[in-house]
Amino acid sequence: MLEGTIPSRPVYGALEIRPGRLHLIVADAEGAEAILDLAASAPPDFFAGAQIIYLPKKSGDKFVAGLEQLAPAQLYVGPSYEAALPRLRRVLAGAHMGLQVYLAGTEGLMGQAMLEATQAGIPHSAIQAEHRGSTVRRVQCVHCKGITEDVTHDPFRCAHCGLHLFVRDHYSRRIAAFQGVRVDAEDPGNIPESVERFR
Amino acid sequence: MTVIFKEETFHDDFTFRNSPEAVKRFPFPFPEDSYMYSVNLEPHKSYRPGSVYERTFDVDEHYVSEMRDRARVLAEDPLRCQSLPHMTLAGWDLLELIMTSKAEEYPELFELHRDGTKWHWINRPLGIEQKFTFLDETTLPYGPMEYITRQTQGDFAVLDQRDDNLWMDAGMVTTQADWSLDFDIGMNFFEWHAPVPKAHEMGIFQRALKFLLNVQQGSPARRLNWTMTVYPLLDTSPENYHKWGVMKKDLTLENMGQMMHLRVELQTFFRLPRSNALVFPIRCYLIKLDELVTVPKWARRFHRVIRDLPTELATYKGFVTNRPKIVEWLSKYDDGAPTSPGIWPD
């Protein structure tokens, strides 16, 4: 479960079927379970109008067969978000009125995909998001602006500039990331023990 | 009043000082001997000649040096000034508001000549003369918001109004109390205030937003906010926190009077005519504790405020570690005598 939240952080709900001409589903790892749960309440022709972009990450093949059984119009299983991005952009560029977007899985994935969708002009009201699985965070270093993916520990070392950062709850939708700030700024070298906060 | 602009710095050798005249007009933010958040908004009307409330955009002795500091910060980090594409019209609104106000209120310093859309702007203190076409971006060296806020003291957040909310969609932010425009741009009113402790639960932001959504053209509003800063740093940004955070350690009881500053923000709010955006200038005034205690009423009151401030607020404002030292130093100036109501010196 996600920890207590502050107003800059999106609130995630549970995916529900909405009427639409095309259903774009983007998920990673345990996000597949949200799709399978969605299928339980889907009308028979739902997946015939659905495209799934799925990134298994550490879950491997665990959910792939289940997704195939849904017989979506298109199922893409990819190695990373970066690899899937051109395809996601292509789908969004070709989207017409009546597109429904369903996001499921980690906050990092949902945040980035939500950003792509809104930049493509998809209204917020047509985008749903459900958190599943890992609570690892995508964090932007406020000093060097580099983004570190899949942060589990707090404090952690910025993958770009190497500063030790603590992870704030403050979240930017535009960057799809939490903010990281140097933990020993006022007392250089005094770095608290790193604790696994997100897993 | 003729302003004599000082040559001074806000970095490296930190030569910033207030003249005795500047101390007298300092916007001391505490009307009573204790402090808690409130929606302390009032009309931004001119009063008390000579005070920082007299003019729409106060120009003081630090003007030229502050603008030089802004240019220095922008050269290091251009992300301090950003404007989302739909905010250009609001930038022109802001340029018009500032140019017309300054030309009218400081005719010896600024001139604006308008012939239809052909405008001619003269800024004497900065030695700028610019002929341009209003609403034509190609005729200015920067976008309109950046152009005029490189010539105006204070940070500027330009807020788009839609969906009954305010959205931070443009800004010039180089003198901030530890918040990042680059991170917060695009956020709504509740989102960019998310890290502030207590105030959400108190309903402060709901009430403030309601007020701000209703600010009308020609009826600007204002409030004061405050924090404390070691060294006269205008740029206390999170971006550079890894550089200035360590400076807090330099503070001692011996150097307190020169090193510690009360930092006050005069925040104003103006409705803009064409874009219906709200511009939110955040003007930073710094005063050394040595300067502040030359006003006995302020010295007594400030001691009591800092001593009794809830720990959560002292932490949020970033001086909880140094607070015992500050209180000890200030206590010498507090004889326990009662203070008069209001912010002005006796």
Automatic annotation (TrEMBL), chain A:
Any matching Pfam family: DmmA-like_C
InterPro entries reported for this sequence: DmmA-like_C, DmmA-like_N
Domain (Dimethylamine monooxygenase subunit DmmA-like N-terminal) ranges: 5-127
Residues of the Dimethylamine monooxygenase subunit DmmA-like C-terminal domain: 138-181
Entry keyword set: 2Fe-2S, Flavoprotein, Iron, Iron-sulfur, Metal-binding, Oxidoreductase
GO molecular-function terms, A-Z: 2 iron, 2 sulfur cluster binding; metal ion binding; oxidoreductase activity
NCBIfam families for the chain: mono_DmmA_fam
Name this polypeptide is given: Uncharacterized protein
Species of provenance: Mesorhizobium tamadayense
From TrEMBL, chain B:
Entries under InterPro entries matching the protein: HODM_asu-like
Domain of life the protein comes from: Bacteria
Protein known as: DUF3445 domain-containing protein
Taxonomic placement: Bacteria, Pseudomonadati, Pseudomonadota, Alphaproteobacteria, Hyphomicrobiales
